[in-house]
Design brief:
By secondary structure, this protein is of the alpha+beta class. The protein is built from 3 helices and 5 strands; from the N terminus they run βββαββαα. The chain has helices at about 40-45, 95-110, 115-135; strands at about 1-20, 20-30, 35, 50-60, 60-70.
Length: about 140
């Protein structure tokens, strides 16, 4: 099963220690649904606002993510987040400036060395693309 969409949010999930040592769950919200992985490298590779495709299979416990990759170009076929979903707020109702700053800070937090002006321009473009995808 393949799912395409825009990363609306990402966060650290549950963590703990088990038989094989410490573990951490890394969560992504795509198309209003949460998907998770135990791989920090996958979590670190992607930022909010990017178009991605995840591949995996539905299981009794949820979705078993096998791969996640960037999608170039238009993601028009993506299931759109309902504008007035019950008991859910649309993540794109946020101030676009705040979203751009969030993308900018996340990019810099990842240690990417680039001209800060170019990073901000990219962040603004990502927010514009994300908003257009859900209009």
């Amino acid at each position: 099963m393949k799912i395409q969409g825009i990363i609306e949010a990402k966060k650290l999930g549950k963590s703990g220690e088990g038989e094989f040592g410490a573990w951490q769950v890394y969560e992504f919200t795509i198309n209003g649904k949460r998907y998770s992985t135990f791989k920090q490298s996958v979590y670190d590779m992607f930022v909010v606002g990017q178009s991605v495709e995840i591949e995996g299979e539905a299981t009794e416990k949820g979705f078993n993510m096998k791969t996640m990759k960037l999608v170039e170009g238009d993601v028009a076929a993506v299931e759109k987040v309902p504008q007035n979903a019950p008991n859910k707020r649309n993540p794109y109702d946020k101030d676009p400036v705040g979203l751009a700053v969030e993308v900018y800070c996340t990019t810099l937090d990842k240690g990417i060395s680039a001209d800060p002006k170019l990073v901000m321009e990219n962040a603004i473009e990502v927010v514009k693309q994300a908003r257009e995808a859900f209009e």
